[in-house]
Design brief:
Domain HTH hxlR-type: 19-117
Number of domains: 1
Helix content: 55-70%
Structural class: mainly alpha
Keywords: DNA-binding, Transcription, Transcription regulation
Pfam families: HxlR
Largest sheet: 3 strands, antiparallel
Radius of gyration: 18 Å
CATH class: Mainly Alpha
Distance between the termini: 50 Å
Low-confidence stretches: none
Protein name: Transcriptional regulator
Number of helices: 8
Shape: globular
Mean pLDDT: 90
CATH superfamily: Winged helix-like DNA-binding domain superfamily/Winged helix DNA-binding domain
Strand content: 5-15%
InterPro entries: HTH_HxlR, WH-like_DNA-bd_sf, WH_DNA-bd_sf
Amino acid sequence: MVTTRDESVLRGSPYRADCPTRRILDRIGDRWTVLIVVALSDGSARFSELRRRIEGVSQKMLTQTLRGLERDGLVSRTVHPEVPVRVEYALTEAGRTLREPLRALEEWSVAHLGEVSASQEAYDRTH
């Protein structure tokens, strides 16, 4: 069976430079995305709650990442017409499917922190 270039892109081939899956991998591989998805795993949260929970994220980066996740259909944004206005973010159905793999990455990084740190120190000493 011969596959055309357009069919290959529609099916997804992240090793091709022009494949849209590259943008998806960029999004889900971003450290702020990983932390936001895991932070929203237990339910919705307000912007200020996310900012407090994810130390080191700037307001600008949190805003940009949430907008990107919303655009990609991974996070929903709900505005509650109250005074003051209350905005909550939650994982969509698609976003919830990322919980397990991203939590696994988080757990892997914690479990292997010592090994990676030791390797980095050894490398830095010899280079």
